[in-house]
Amino acid sequence: MRLSIVVLFLTAACATAETPISPAPARLEIVPPRQPPPFDARAFAADQLSPAECETAARQMHQNNADQGWAALSACVERTRWPRGEFTLLERLTGGFWDLDLQTRSDAPRLVARVIALRGGDVEGDIPLAQKSRVPLFTLAAALRQPDGYKGRWVLVRAAVSEMKQNAAYVRETSLRATAREVQVGPIRRTDHSSSTAVSADVQTTHYGNARGGAQINSSDRTEHSLVKQKFENERVETGRQAVGRLAQPDPFLEPDKDFIFLGRFDGVRPGEDEAPVALLSIAGYYRPNALLIQ
Questions:
Q1: Would you report the helix, strand and coil content of the chain in percent, each value rounded to 5?
Q2: Which of 273, 256, 254, 76 is nearest to 167 (CA)?
Q3: Distance from first CA to last CA of the chain, Å, rounded?
Q4: Cα–Cα distance, 126 to 40 (Å, whole number)
Q5: Side-chain-facing half-sphere of 292: CA atoms under 13 Å
Q6: pLDDT 10s digits, 113-129
Q7: What's the CA gap between 184 and 134, in Å, rounded?
Q8: Does domain 149-178+233-287 have CATH number 3.40.1380.10?
Q9: pLDDT tens-digit map of 249-295
């Protein structure tokens, strides 16, 4: 009887004992590194004091990240209301550092067109600077001389709108010509001189009586002296070349008889009045030229 109780107790003890379970290994979660915020090109340009400093800072950034450097340069050009003048540094853009970007970036012609407009819109004078860096940007005159060779290429035109029809603008190309005139500098000095001389004579003769005569001579002169200098001004003239620009949609800001800098793809020519060729363009953008011309 006593043996049965012991066996029963041992059986109950074995039934209630729990098998020890080893703890599960701790799970390590891999947290990806925090990505830096995207580059804000406009904020970069807004922090610069002048266009020259902005371009220099964009160069430094370009050495580490070419895409960010180009985006920074574009923001420098697009920024308005600089405290020390607009971005007109075409010589620095075409000095060699940016040549590869100017040749390969799809928005390079648009950037150069904006700079030329900010410089006053002297297309014929500034296009050679851009072409020095092999920027694929050409004049309307070159395209009209060889339509087949320039078809599909970017053309920059300074022109005034003569007529708008739905999604097309009829434009007349204009250009700037240097004219010289004399401008007075300082006060005018005058010297006046006058004189009067009277002459009389009596003559006596034996056969014909006496004769008397007289004469009076008056003279006066004025001399003016002033200092002048030669001043050169840019005169707007029409070249006689015309174009039809196709627009994506009607644009009410293209006011007639006002000059704009048009950037467009050259699509060929069609005969116009007196069989003069009229260029066909697909307008990609336009800018108002600055009133102050920079040479």
A1: 30, 40, 30
A2: 254
A3: 124
A4: 30
A5: 5
A6: 999 999 999 999 999 99
A7: 44
A8: no
A9: 989 899 999 999 999 999 999 998 878 899 999 999 999 999 877 76
* Residue found by looking up tokens 């928005």 in the block: 107
Q: How far is CA 115 from CA 77, 80, 87, 149, 184, in A?
A: 7, 12, 7, 26, 34
Query: Interior CA angle at 261 toward 237 and 75, to 5°?
Result: 145
Q: Please answer whether residues 161 and 122 qualify as being in contact, where contact means their C-beta atoms are separated by less than 8 angstroms.
A: no
Would you tell me how many other CB atoms lie within 10 Å of the CB of residue 130?
Answer: 24
Q: Where are the domains of the chain?
A: 41-134, 149-178+233-287, 191-230
- Contact, 184 vs 228, CB < 8 A? yes
Q: Which residue has the tokens 């300074």?
A: 158
Distance CA 112, CA 291 (A): 18
- Contact status, residue 69 vs residue 105, Cβ threshold 8 Å: no
Residues written for the chain: 295
Structure tokens at 112: 């150069």
pTM assigned to the model:
0.72
Tell me how far apart the alpha carbons of residues 242 and 172 are, in angstroms, rounded to a whole number: 5
Enumerate residues 6+ apart whose C-beta is below 8 A from 264.
154, 155, 157, 245, 281, 282, 283, 284
Q: Is 80 helix (H, G, I), strand (E, B) or coil?
A: coil
Structure tokens of 259?
């000059």
Q: Are 157 and 286 in contact (CB under 8 A)?
A: no
What is the rounded distance in angstroms from the CA atom of residue 295 to the CA atom of residue 292?
10
Phi and psi, residue 116, nearest 5°: -60, -40
**Cβ 165 vs Cβ 150: under 8 Å:** no
Q: Which residues contact 269 (CB under 8 A, 6 or more apart)?
A: 144, 147, 277, 278, 279, 280
